[in-house]
Design goal:
Layout lengths: L7 H14 L4 H10 L4 H12 L15 E2 L6 E4 L11 H33 L8 H15 L11 H11 L2 E7 L4 H8 L5 H10 E7 L3 H10 L6 E8 L2 E9 L4 H93 L13 E7 L5 E7 L4 H9 L8 E5 L5 E2 L10 H4 L5 E7 L3
Parallel strand pairs: 1-6, 2-6, 3-4, 7-11
Antiparallel strand pairs: 3-5, 5-6, 7-8, 9-10, 9-11
Length: 439
Amino acid sequence: MDNDGLSNEQTEKVLQFQDITGLDDMNVCRDILIRHQWDLEVAFQEHLNIREGRPSAYATESRAPAVINDRFLQHVFSSARLSPQREPNGVGGIIRYVFNYMVNFWYSAFSSILSTLLGLFRDQESIPADPLGDVLKFIQTYNEKYPEHPVFYQGTYSQALNDAKNELRFLLVYLHSESTSEAVAFCRGAMSNAEVIEYVNRRMLFWACDMASHEGKRVATAISVRTHPTLLIIGMRANKMIIMGRLEGDCSSEELIRRMDTVVNDNEVWLNQARQDRLERDLTQTLRQQQDEAYQRSLQADQEKQRRKQQEREEAMRIQAAIEAEQLAEQQRKDDIERLKLDLAEQVPSEPEAGAPDTISIVFKLPSGLRLERRFRNTNTMQDIYNFIFCHPDAPDSFEITTNFPKRVLECSGDEPGQTLLLSGLKNREVLFVADLEA
């Protein structure tokens, strides 16, 4: 088997499929797996259906593909016994021989063309009501009379052709006529032979029907069956289904195998070429699909990379916007505090003169280490002290004022003016500490 283009996993599946099916040709195993998208279970089930005569998933078309019926492209074997002909003697004998040969040649050609045209017109007739029923009824009746035979295809002629075309196998067609003694002898003899059965089951699909049924008549007309028994071997040649062999008349099992083998050997090259062409198309399609999948993965990776970059840009912009909003809010807060300081500065009482009665001097120690000393009147409130510190340029924006010992926090801010300095118990030269609440 040519392993080009197959992965190790695909090669292993080919070996597994060959092991469970018993097929000799690994290329056939590979073709079947490729047609079923390398699904081992589905491929085996389809192969089992074909081997047991059941239509596969391919055989869904109700109309059969066109079959070329050209006797010049066929191997024609006939068992009819003709009266012996004397060798032509003299010039007159040779002329008669040539004349008879030309007449038979053109008669055969004209008959084939006429049968084909008639078949085309008859194809326009109404389709039988139950073609599948005709086939299954024939199989049941045949089994009762001739139990030994190759595996019958349990579907219509159209389904059999579709399966043979898609599976690239030979299709052996037999139209039975119980009224002819030769057909009965053929079924009891050659068709029941074990070697014939093994040969047909291994190499072909075998479809048969009764000539007395509607389906049998229709098919017999389409493929020009006029002699009983007649076997037709149909296969793919140059992308067309053609009749490759016509086996007419009763014969021995050895002769039947020889005839079938001749047709198969002479036409196997066409099926092998079709299998190779299909394999190349499937491999090309698989390669294209793999390339498309790789491209899609690469595209998705690029899109994911772009998405992450976009997310990073958006996150950076969001963080920057939050920082700017925070800075703006902080600046707004500072501006509001500056305006408030300007407003409260007008409310700070003026400092009394040194030595003025009812005054006390208070020392403030700011967080920066700066010492401030300021005189206030006893009637000034704690809110006045707070406003004085708040409006100082070196004072923190948020603070509290505490005494040193014993340490206590003075209530000097709020909506109410608070106590007067006299009532708060502050003494002259009292040292108060300003603590930064934001530090």
